[in-house]
Specification:
Pyrimidine Nucleoside Phosphorylase, Chain A, domain 2; alpha/beta; homodimer; Barwin-like endoglucanases; 4-stranded antiparallel beta sheet; globular
Chain lengths: ~500, ~500
């Protein structure tokens, strides 16, 4: 038996057990490769990877250390007696072997996999096996089974509401923050919209990153329910909420390996929405050769898939194919995007028209979920709510309930990217704009990003500013600058 | 800039960078998921996963900690100035996306992947992506390209030798330690045989585990060359040798996820053999419904594949399909297997006949690589060498050169598993015997394992001992005992 020690290291959902190389109980010097251990002493065994320590300040030979994640799970005090054995293989890994061999997995198999992931019997590497093996192909019923497995046991309860709406975009289009405008309009109308959004690591900004410029987005369930009760709307980061825990673990690994399959995105989004108690959902499918969905055929396939899974799980889905050929709005990066959103809500003349129109269009589709509204009236109602200032008022109330954020400043290091010759902006490359935004630091610092002053179709004179880069640190600024020298992302046709 | 600190933790080929949560330079509190960092300060950047620390005894806010693996790679002293950025994606990961989508990868793509793995730009999770995506299917040319990519830059040089032989079994059959007997016979004959073997974690014993009972197997290249020069034979653990480094990294991850594809096994074995300078190789393909290769069709496919890759890479391969329907020899577990091997070499009457005959057969095939030997004479020559005691003499010389091991004792906790009724042993389940051996502790403690007193075809009376379990610790013993209660692995038909 060894004495438990909390090693204060956070490893992002990977559990670690630290054993001293001269451990008094376990011979670990001979261990030659990664070994998953089963730690005994708590109510349930905890699974963790063995790491060998040669520093008694971290763990002593008579101690067994657990990192912060594993220590929370074992849930017994430091100093308690603990022991370990080599973990047996979670049986559901056999289903993954079957999937690699090209088979279709059953609902039960997806459930077993999700169960083992929830019990932390899967390492991050095992989760990668799951993602990559199912990445090759999944039938529509498999996507359904995966969605069901990801929902988890707990869904948010909305006692007296008949209808809970939300909106989600499949993404890949920089600046596309319709969600905040939509939430404001729909909440002002009075349909309850607990918008769940995500933070981003690899793109310039997720909806949660942008709204975090204005308000606290790390809501617990109570605050979310309070804001819906009082304001009919809320925007919360799903990663901070206690729903669909398996989905959270799987997505965290998926981000790291950077391999995103559409079937996984669909099951993940629907699982979160269903766990949040959403009954009616608009899904925005932007299509563009540099968006996530490249062509209309793919978009139609995704739409059918989303509709099928939605039908089977009794969530009403309106999947809308939209133009994803260029960035939406002017700002790319949290602070700049929040500025665009507020311009629209304040009915400013220089508000970006494309972002405003897309928001009105999608908000209109959501409003039409209301049986009291006649078909075709959604857009006009949404427009009236926006122009009257009621949408702004609704968002301010939401911000007040969620807690106002200390608004970060715009990055003070700027560079203007100029038109090399006169002509017309022919094309703006979403992926390149996103990359330059990330190099400028937008995924780490809310004030960084790009301000797009010209959009597709605009006439430009040689030397006109196409866009302005904002960075917060000189390193990021240098990265973004050197990236721009290569290829700015803008294509201009000579007149 | 932060000051470098060596955090004395070994994580088995995963690099870790430790940053204090109140780091003076990098804001890490907001980091929400696994992030791969690029650490600058050494000659080449080092890639490592970020972990956040809340204990100044591990790292202080002005320090950047690297675990032992990463600290070795950065190769600059503690206290040196270091900085970090978020790592960009290794470009070869795009090839993995292509593979997931069902494409065939080129030689160049396999090379790029291997290069990025060698540079440690792949995390273990990325390596899993590679393994699982190629696990779905690989064409024969892909297996060739993967083998080439795994060989690496360095191959062992055997100046004056025209022919270097070796033997390898595809495995899955408990007790099957022909390799040691074969090495002794071939070395005694005079053909140089630098046998590379592996340690096992998940099965009762690899060849390296068993030979480690008799001699040191962690050889450097010099000792290997010395033993070949002086004794014509050596048995070395490939994991401890500085060859095929990418293969070592990939295999370490493969063991952890427990998903082994035959194509990967073929490329791995051939890469190691070629990197060791082997020119002539006998491959043993045991077939049995509880062996790794289940049926003759599969075995023939593997043989064709091995022959194709061997031809293209100019290594002469004799692939032999053998009977893998039951364990070979009596001992299962390092000490018991070593006992069997020594009985054979000492020409003891109670030496296991099946292990002896299989060893002679395979040794004979290797001897026939010698152009001076007439076809069909190999077996007889091998038998003469064994019976004359020259094989034993050769092995003793090899043990002397490699360094004699402090022979571990047989596990003192024993249990006899008895025949429940009289009859004939119909079948012995390889997988079950292996599992019970592992539960008994054979993968951790060399003295643990099973001693099989009855084999298929043997008549047994009710109460006869079928096999004896040996364990070193009461925990392992209890595991093995409870496993036996369920299913002993023996099937007996009533007379």
């Amino acid at each position: 038996m060894l004495a438990l020690k909390h090693v204060h290291v956070t490893s992002f959902n990977e559990n670690t057990v630290y054993v001293h190389k001269d451990c008094s109980t376990y011979q670990v010097e001979d261990v030659a490769s990664l070994t998953k251990m089963e730690i005994h002493g708590g109510v349930k065994p905890v699974y963790a990877f063995l790491q060998v320590v040669d520093d008694a300040k971290i763990v002593k030979p008579n101690e067994l250390g657990l990192n912060t994640e594993a220590f929370k799970l074992i849930n017994i005090p430091e100093g308690a007696n603990v022991s370990m054995t080599i973990a047996s293989r979670p049986p559901s890994l056999n289903a993954i072997k079957k999937k690699i061999a090209g088979n279709i997995l059953s609902a039960g198999e997806y459930r077993s996999i999700a169960h083992d992931i929830e019990q932390r019997r899967y390492s991050n590497m095992d989760i990668v096996s799951f993602l990559v093996s199912t990445g090759a192909f999944m039938t529509a019923p498999e996507v359904l089974h995966m969605t069901e497995a990801l929902i988890g046991d707990k869904t948010i309860n909305w006692d007296n509401e008949n209808i809970i709406v939300d909106h989600h975009s499949l993404g890949g289009v920089p600046g596309n923050k319709t969600d905040i405008v939509i939430t404001a309009i729909v909440a002002a109308y009075g349909l309850p919209i607990p918008k769940t959004a995500s933070r981003s690591l690899t793109s310039t900004a997720g909806v949660a990153d942008t709204f975090a410029v204005l308000a606290n987005v790390n809501l617990d369930e109570k605050t979310l329910q309070k804001s819906i009760r009082e304001n009919r709307g809320a925007i919360a980061c799903y990663q901070s909420m206690d729903i669909a825990p398996v989905n959270r673990l799987v997505r965290s690994v998926e981000r790291q390996i950077g391999i995103t399959q559409k079937e996984h995105v669909v099951s993940s989004i629907l699982a979160i929405k269903i766990a949040t108690g959403v009954t009616h959902l608009v899904i925005d499918i932007p299509v563009g050769d540099k968006a996530r969905i490249k062509n209309t055929n793919d978009a139609l396939r995704i739409r059918k898939l989303v509709e099928y899974v939605g039908d089977m799980l009794s969530i009403d889905i309106d999947a809308v194919i939209t133009d994803g050929s260029e960035p939406i709005g002017n700002g790319v990066g949290p602070v700049l995007e929040a500025r665009d959103v507020m311009k629209i809500l304040r009915n400013k003349e220089d508000a970006p028209e494309d972002l405003k129109e897309k928001s009105l269009f999608l908000a209109g589709r959501i409003l039409e979920f209301d049986p009291k509204l006649k078909g075709g009236q959604g857009y006009a109602v949404a427009k009236e709510i926006l122009q009257s200032g009621r949408a702004l008022e609704a968002l301010n109330k939401i911000i007040h309930t969620q807690g106002k954020a200390p608004q970060p400043e715009l990055g003070h290091l700027t560079r203007e990217v100029l038109a090399p010759y006169s002509g017309v902006v022919e094309r703006i490359d979403n992926q390149r704009i996103n990359s330059i935004g990330v190099w400028a630091g937008a995924n780490k610092f809310a004030g960084a990003g790009l301000d797009l002053l010209k959009k597709v179709g605009d006439k430009v004179e040689q030397g006109d500013v196409l866009y302005r880069i904002h960075s917060g640190t000189s390193t990021d600024f240098a990265y973004a600058n050197s990236a721009v020298e290569g290829y700015s992302g803008y294509e201009i046709s000579r007149e």
